[in-house]
Design a protein that fits this description.
- The chain is of the alpha+beta class and 237 residues long.
- It has 2 domains: 3-93, no CATH class; 98-232, Immunoglobulin-like, CATH 2.60.40.4070.
- It is 28% helix and 34% strand.
- The protein has helices spanning 3-13, 33-45, 55-96, and strands at 100-104, 109-113, 120-126, 130-138, 144-153, 156-162, 175-184, 193-206, 213-217, 222-224, 228-232.
């Protein structure tokens, strides 16, 4: 047997081991595009000379690399977009300081009697014209202290200035109250009502849970910008 044949037989009898192979631990780790490309190049440099990489396999790995690179670029763009959106929200929030905002109260609104004799704005939005609008006002214990019969209101965003008195006309104590609004059309059918809270924005904060921007109202209530449905200039402000 010639020396050449002997060497070939030795190579054929040997088990090829990729010196750059990553040990399998059963745990799948994410790798970056630089690592992926490095592994692919090293695999080409150290492939078995008797069993070179199939062209189809090579093309498939290049396709995987291209997909990984596109995904990385997409993730980077999403991060930039999120940062831009957060900055824009902060700028919008700063512009609301010193203004009155109406916000989605999730079914019930809040009202505060400050004892200064000023009327308390009760905000709501009607889905259609209403022949009768009724507002029930409750104290902190959940007891109904006043029922206001308002009559006809057009559809849209509406505001009623409450004088802070109960159904008998007695002045109610200073404190926090809630209210609910009901409406019916000329046929007696219920009209959809969205109750909105309101208040003056005195500052902004960052939510420690998710990093979102919060508006701080004069009452101490904190709301998200996405809850705001209207922004109004305070008279004389």
């Amino acid at each position: 047997m010639s020396m050449f044949n002997s060497n070939v037989s030795a190579v054929e009898g040997a088990t090829y081991s990729d010196p750059f192979a990553i040990p399998t631990t059963g745990k799948k780790d994410d790798i970056g595009k630089e690592t992926f490309l490095l592994l692919l190049v090293e695999q080409l440099k150290n492939q078995d000379p008797l069993e070179p990489m199939d062209g189809t396999d090579f093309t498939a790995q290049l396709a995987q690399f291209s997909s990984l690179e596109q995904q990385t670029a997409t993730n980077e763009n999403l991060i930039l977009l999120q940062e831009y959106s957060a900055t824009l929200n902060r700028l919008n929030a700063l512009n609301m300081i010193g203004r009155k905002v109406e916000f989605d109260g999730s079914g019930s609104g809040s009202a505060k009697i400050a004892g200064d004799g000023q009327p308390i704005a009760l905000n709501f939005e009607l889905a259609d014209n209403a022949q009768e609008v009724t507002i029930d006002i409750y104290n902190q214990e959940g007891g109904r202290v006043a029922t206001l019969e308002l009559g006809y209101y057009d559809l849209g965003s509406r505001e009623y200035n409450w004088n802070g008195r109960d159904s008998e006309g007695n002045a109610l104590p200073v404190g926090d109250y809630t209210y609910e609004v009901y409406a019916r059309d000329e046929l007696g059918q219920l009209v959809g009502v969205t109750v909105n809270g309101s208040g003056e924005v005195t500052g902004i904060e960052t939510d420690p849970k998710n990093g979102n921007t919060l508006l701080v109202l004069q009452s101490g209530t904190r709301i998200g910008i996405d809850q705001v449905v209207a922004v109004k200039q305070i008279p004389g402000g």
